[in-house]
Hints:
This protein is about 30% helix and about 15% strand. The chain is of the alpha/beta class. The strands form two sheets. A seven-stranded parallel beta sheet has the order 1-10-9-6-2-3-5, sandwiched between helices. Strands 4-8-7 form a three-stranded antiparallel beta sheet. α1 packs across α2. The relative contact order is 0.18. The model has no long low-confidence stretch (mean pLDDT about 95). The site of fructose -6-phosphate has 14 residues, from loops.
Amino acid sequence: MEVVIAxxxxxxxxxxxxxxxxxxxxxxxxxxxxxxxxxLKVYDELARRHTETGLSFAxxxxxxxxxxxGIAADHxxxxxxxIETEIASRVDFAEGAVRGxxxxxxxLVAACADYEAAIAAAGGVDVQLLGIGTDGHIAFNEPGSSxxxxxxxxxxxxxxxxxxxxFFEDDLSQVPQHCLTQGLATIMSAKxxxxxxxxxxxxxxxxxxxxxxxxxxxxxxxxxMHPHATVLVDDAAASRLQLADYxxxxxxxxxxxxxx
Length: 260
Ligand code: F6R
């Protein structure tokens, strides 16, 4: 696991560099998209590169991590709509190339199985963007999630619902209770994991993710088992890392050709 500590704008550029490098090497790359505030600067940077430098997503496909259940199709906070606004509509993905779990399906169990099959049929995710919740969730794999889990329905914790109330007029009662989420094993099947975290509120979750024992209580810790995981954090999110100086020194002396 590589940890890079840098200001938020630089982290976004690094994540965008990784996605750009993948798209230039493999035009039909499969991207994994996260929602929430953590990837927004990355999406801004990718949209800028698309407009200004012609970076193309025309042959790429993308899979979202998760989706709320019980939210109207046209709700602006439905994750499918958020992804459309924040990235899909700003670049040149082909029609139908961006998919998410169908939180509106009548048969949610079948929708989860279909989603797993679609990711597999696409050949798996090449680069997966991730954020982390203050309770250590990645995607919506809340504490207690099986480390072997696949896409399924989950109940959001009170902590996550409170954290996300800011997207729902600070009204907890509007925040859905359930979601469909890629499982931890689904995420672990992606070839490169790139997690972004900024702000002091993420410091404990980042410390556990990188340096804690692997445990379902801090679901992101499963990433310690991934052969290619990159953790991009600002100073505040890195403030509880025991080996912060070592991570800084390692990154500072890294050869430029190596990339993330
Ligand atoms: C969203 C997702 C979540 C968020 C996490 C952090 O698709 O998978 O795991 O990444 O809740 O959210 P932000 O980035 O809003 O702090």
